[in-house]
Amino acid sequence: MTYDINISMLVRILKNYQPVNFILFLAISILVWIKPLISTDLPGIYIDPSPMPVYQWIIDLIGSPQFNILCKLIAFLLVVLQGTMINGIINQYNLLGFRGYLPGIIFILISSSFLEYQILQPILFSNLFLLLAWERVIRAYDKENTFEAYFNASFLIGIASLFYPNYWFFLLILFLSVGMNRVGHIREFAMVLVGFITVWFFYLSLYYLLTSSIQFSGLDNEFSFSFPKYPGIIISQKIILFYASIILIAATVQLGTYISNLKIPMRRNLKFLFLWFLLGILMLLFTKSSIEIIYLISIPTAVLFAMFFVNLKKGRISEVLWIILILCIILNQAFPNLLKV
């Protein structure tokens, strides 16, 4: 894949894998997290009314108001770690045709669109294990024996579901990955089930040994379709979502013009990320998941946006679109009530 020489200056800088860009990555992360970190109005941790027992232990440990700053700091470090992992996975397997920090920076920016959700919450822990599972799936593409890779990926998704139960839906993507990306063997499908079941078997066994009971609190897969559960979205956040949707549509159209020219591993990964994004949207619309899903959806979105900005032939347009995205998110952080009526 080739890139146009008119690529915007900002994008050109961020797509390079230089140590100074890691400093820029950290600087942007601090910039969009500094307000929630120092805010006294924002709680440090989400107190789930019906948490998974694993998350309940975290609440019991650091859930009191005196640990607010610590909780916010942990949340910040988890998000920065996820951005670093995204860059590391993409760069290690050359999934975009270039090595740089652009995908991780876009993830940090988009996931910080909702100030009130920049607190410690279950999905931040689950995302770590989901990213590790993604890396195992990518690794499976280049192996003849993929049993171990799919078992490990399913095992990691199982751990993720101990914090945020709806992540068990990612088993569906693993099954589709086995079926679409190679000649699926029945043992690979079996490994997907065995890995997930193993986690829950050991979890329930350990919980029973410690408490003499079996606890399924937090498991609620009630399906419903309702928009009124998002009444708190302010105008500036709606603008960000609308603008990001426009870029997403443009990026999808652009990708369709050259996806057939990409290497097979890149095409496989894009299929996986498309299913990832679609599943996130479905979870948002049809389950009790709410705006915290932004942390999940931001990962595939960041990859697609990075490809869009890098492959946009008009350098000035890329520059303008990139600057608008940054300004929208920073202004929303600094002046969330600027457009409030």
Overview of this structure, please?
This protein is an all-alpha fold and 341 residues long. It has a domain at 9-130 and 233-334. It has 13 helices and no strands. The protein has helices spanning 9-14, 19-38, 53-62, 68-92, 102-111, 122-140, 147-161, 170-181, 186-211, 235-258, 264-286, 294-311, 315-334.
Condensed summary:
The chain is mainly alpha-helical and 341 residues long. It is 67% helix and 0% strand.
Name some characteristics of this structure.
single chain, 341 residues, mainly alpha, 13 helices, 67% helix, globular
Q: In terms of per-residue confidence, which ranges show pLDDT below 50 for 5 or more consecutive residues?
A: 1-6, 222-228
Shape: globular
Helical percent range? 55-70%
Overall mean confidence score, pLDDT: 86
How much strand content do the residues show? under 5%
The major pleated sheet works out as:
none
Figure out the total of helices: 13
Rg (C-alpha, Å): 20 Å
Structural class: mainly alpha
Q: Tell me the number of strands.
A: 0
Cα distance spanning the termini: 47 Å
Subunit arrangement of the protein: single chain
What's the SSE pattern?
A: HHHHHHHHHHHHH
Question: How would the blueprint of this fold be written?
Answer:
Blueprint: H1 9-14, H2 19-38, H3 53-62, H4 68-92, H5 102-111, H6 122-140, H7 147-161, H8 170-181, H9 186-211, H10 235-258, H11 264-286, H12 294-311, H13 315-334
